[in-house]
Specification:
This protein is α/β, with parallel strands linked by helices. It is built from 19 helices and 27 strands. The relative contact order is 0.13.
Length: 627
C-alpha cells in the first residue's frame, strides 16, 4: 500500500522532467555540498539546443533584473511540508459552504493549493502592499537551501514574524518588494484558468516595475489594460507637489484563449436607447454610416443612397460609407436607416436596437468614482458593518463588483481568489454580486494573521489580527446580504470554511529519517504528531491528493470506527487505530474512488497486508493509500 507524500510538489524537479522529455541530452548529475548526487540541467547544452548563438556574459539583453530575483524564483519552486488545518469554530456553515478563508502566509498557501486548484481560478484580485516606504512586506527567507525545505517551511523569522518594514532607506527597497511579488505571481499564474484574468491594484511608485514583472510572468502578449481608477475626487492642499486622485489597476489574462472581454450593460448605457419612431423592434440608438476612410482609400464603398423622404441620391463629398452596397440594401430592406425626425438629415445613420445588444460593453481603461466607488466609500462600508474604522483604506465593493462583472459569469460557479485579502472586501463583493444576479461564484480569501494595534479601533473591538477582521467582515456582510433584496435563484451561500496554515501533521522524522537514533526510535513508531485530530489528517490528505477543499464532508461510524466520507464516495478516510478486516470490507462495499488509512491503524499486520487484496476484489477501481 503506497503512502501519500504529504508535501507539495517539487516544481523544480517537475520542470527538469519536462526538459528531460524534450532535451534528454541536457540533463546531467552533480554532487551537492553534502556530496549527494543530484539531477540538474546543463544550461550550456540547453542554450545551444535553443539558439544558434548563445546569449550570455556581457551581451546586452532586454529584461528586468534585481538583487534577489533568482532566490525569489527558488522560493516559488521550493516545496513545502506545511499543511492546512480546519478551524470549524471560526467557520460559517462549514459542512455546506463552497467558500474558503485560509489564514496564513500567502506564499505557503499558494503552494498548498497548487494541485487542488490548478487552472481552476477564473479571477484573481490582489491589493498588495504598495511599497510606499511605510508598508510592511512579507519577509521570505531565501537563505535556506531547497534540500532543507522541510525545516524552512516551519519557520518564519527570528522573531516569529512574516512581515517586516520596508523603509525607503533600505538599500534593497525595490528589490525586496519585487522578490515578494514575483514569487507569488508565478504561483498564482498556475491557478488561473485559460480564460482567467488577474487584476492588481498599485500606485505610481511600483507600477512600472509591476508591469515588467507581469510581462515576464504572464507574457507581454497577455497584457489587457492599465486602468486608472478615480479613487477620490477632491484634492488635498497638504501635498507638496502633485496630489494623486487615482490608483492603477493592472490587468492580465492567462492566455490568448480569452479573446473577447466585455462588461455588463448598465442602466446608464441602456438609457441612450429610445424609440423616436415607435419602431416595433423596441428602443434603438444610431451610429454613423460614414467611413473614416476617404473615397480614394475605399473606392469599393462609394455609391449613392436614395433618401426615401426627399428622393435625392446622397453621396459623401470626401469619404466612403462604412458598409458595402449589398449590406446597404439589407439595411434599407430592414428599415434600419435613420434620416432624422423630419427625414432631411444630410447623411443616414444606422439603427442599433437594444434587444440586439447581448454581448455587453467594451470596457474602458478610465474608471470614474461614480461607477467604481472611492476609498471613502470603502471606509464607510467598514464603518456600517463594524460601527468603527477597524481597517484602513479598504477597497470599495463597487470597484470589485465591476471587476467581477468583467471576469466572471453568474451561473458558471466561477472561482475568485484574493491572496492579499485584508478586510475581505473581495468576499463581500462576491456575496453581494451573487445575491444580485443569482450567481454561484465562490471565493478563496488568504490573509496572514498580522497583529493589529491593541489601541486601534480594531484592537478595541477585540479583533487582534487582520485575519480576524476579514473573517468577521464576511460573517457580518453575509447577514447584511441575507436581509436585503435577493435574486430568487440565489443559493444563499454566505458561509466560509476556515483553514489555517500550520506545520505538517507528520513528525519531523517522517521527512528526515537519517536523523533517527536509538533514543527517538520508539517515538518514531507513531509518525503523526500527538496534538493532531482526525480532521487535520483528512485535510492534509485532501491537499496532498488535490481534492477540492470545499467538498461536503460526512462523518459516520462503521463497526465502531470513525470514517469520513468526502462528497459521498469521492474519498473515504479512516484514521482510527484497530481497524479490522470487517471495517475494510464494509468500506470497500461503498466503492469509493479513493480510500486512505493510517499506516499503523490496523489491528494486525495481516489486515494491513490484505487491504489492497480486499479492495481489488470488492472495488477494483479504488485507489488505496496510507499515511
Amino acid at each position: 500500500m503506497d503512502k501519500l507524500k504529504m508535501h507539495t510538489s517539487d516544481i523544480t524537479r517537475e520542470n527538469i522532467e519536462k526538459i528531460r522529455s524534450l532535451f534528454p541530452s541536457c540533463i546531467t548529475e552533480f554532487r551537492d555540498s553534502n556530496g549527494e548526487p543530484r539531477v540538474s540541467v546543463d544550461f550550456d547544452l540547453l542554450r545551444q539546443e535553443l539558439c544558434g548563438q548563445i546569449v550570455e556574459g556581457p551581451v546586452e539583453r532586454y529584461r528586468l533584473d534585481w538583487p534577489g530575483k533568482r532566490e525569489a524564483l527558488v522560493a516559488a519552486n521550493t516545496p513545502t511540508a506545511n499543511t492546512l488545518r480546519p478551524c470549524i469554530s471560526d467557520s460559517v456553515e462549514f459542512n455546506s459552504t463552497q467558500n474558503l478563508f485560509i489564514e496564513g502566509d500567502n506564499l505557503e498557501t499558494l503552494k498548498l493549493i497548487q494541485e487542488t486548484y490548478l487552472g481552476k481560478v477564473k479571477m484573481i484580485y490582489i491589493d498588495p502592499p504598495y511599497n510606499t516606504g511605510n508598508d510592511f512586506i512579507y519577509n521570505d527567507d531565501f537563505s535556506v537551501s531547497s534540500e532543507r525545505f522541510d525545516v524552512q517551511s516551519s519557520i518564519k523569522d527570528s522573531d516569529g514574524k512574516k512581515l517586516v518594514a520596508n523603509n525607503e532607506s533600505n538599500g534593497r527597497f525595490h528589490s525586496d518588494w519585487l522578490s515578494m511579488i514575483f514569487s507569488r505571481l508565478r504561483l498564482a499564474r498556475n491557478l488561473l484558468s485559460d480564460m482567467g484574468i488577474i487584476f492588481i491594484s498599485i500606485d505610481d511608485g511600483e507600477v512600472a516595475n509591476l508591469r515588467k514583472v507581469c510581462d515576464e510572468v504572464f507574457g507581454e502578449n497577455n497584457f489587457v489594460a492599465q486602468i486608472a481608477w478615480e479613487k477620490r475626487y477632491t484634492r488635498s492642499n497638504n501635498a507638496k507637489r502633485f496630489y494623486s486622485l487615482k490608483d492603477t489597476i493592472i490587468v492580465y489574462r492567462k492566455s490568448e484563449k480569452l479573446e473577447v472581454i466585455k462588461e455588463p450593460r448598465t442602466e446608464k448605457s441602456d438609457s441612450n436607447y429610445r424609440n423616436l419612431d415607435d419602431d416595433p423592434r423596441g428602443p434603438w440608438m444610431t451610429s454613423s454610416y460614414v467611413n473614416p476612410a476617404t473615397k480614394e482609400a475605399r473606392p469599393n464603398l462609394v455609391y449613392g443612397i436614395k433618401n426615401p423622404f426627399t428622393d435625392q441620391m446622397v453621396t459623401h463629398p470626401t469619404h466612403a460609407w462604412k458598409y458595402s452596397k449589398s449590406e446597404n440594401e439589407i439595411h434599407i430592406a430592414e428599415g434600419r436607416l435613420w434620416w432624422g425626425k423630419d427625414g432631411r438629415a444630410e447623411f443616414p445613420r444606422l439603427k442599433l436596437f437594444l434587444t440586439e445588444q447581448t454581448d455587453g460593453l467594451v470596457p474602458v481603461d478610465v474608471w470614474d468614482y461614480k461607477s467604481s466607488g472611492t476609498t471613502d466609500e470603502g471606509g464607510q462600508e467598514i464603518k456600517r458593518l463594524f460601527g468603527s474604522a477597524v481597517f484602513d483604506t479598504p477597497k470599495p465593493t463597487k470597484l470589485i463588483r465591476r471587476m467581477l462583472g468583467i471576469a466572471t459569469s453568474s451561473n458558471a460557479g466561477d472561482l475568485v481568489l484574493d491572496f492579499f485579502s485584508g478586510s475581505s472586501s473581495t468576499a463581500d463583493a462576491v456575496l453581494q454580486m451573487n445575491a444580485q444576479d443569482g450567481g454561484n461564484r465562490r471565493f478563496i480569501m488568504v490573509q496572514l494573521p498580522e497583529a493589529t494595534d491593541p489601541k486601534s479601533p480594531a484592537g478595541k473591538a477585540g479583533l487582534s489580527t487582520i485575519a480576524e477582521i476579514g473573517k468577521e467582515r464576511i460573517r457580518r456582510a453575509g447577514q447584511t446580504v441575507l436581509k436585503g433584496e435577493r435574486h430568487p435563484n440565489w443559493k444563499r451561500d454566505v458561509g466560509f470554511r476556515v483553514l489555517k496554515v500550520d506545520s505538517s501533521n507528520m513528525e519531523d522524522v517522517f521527512y528526515r529519517p537519517d536523523d533517527v537514533d536509538q533514543k527517538n526510535l520508539l517515538e518514531a513508531v507513531d509518525h503523526i504528531k500527538h496534538d493532531r485530530e482526525a480532521e487535520d489528517l483528512l485535510f492534509q490528505v485532501l491537499v496532498d491528493w488535490g481534492v477540492d477543499l470545499t467538498l461536503p464532508i460526512r462523518r459516520d461510524t462503521v463497526h465502531g470506527k470513525s470514517v469520513f466520507f468526502v462528497d459521498q464516495n469521492a474519498l473515504v478516510a479512516c484514521f482510527d487505530r484497530g481497524v479490522s478486516e470487517e471495517v475494510v470490507k464494509e468500506l470497500a462495499k461503498t466503492e469509493p474512488l479513493r480510500v486512505v488509512f493510517r499506516d499503523n491503524g490496523f489491528d494486525s499486520d495481516a489486515v494491513r497486508i490484505n487491504v489492497e487484496q480486499i479492495f481489488r476484489q470488492l472495488s477494483p477501481a479504488t485507489e488505496v493509500k496510507s499515511i
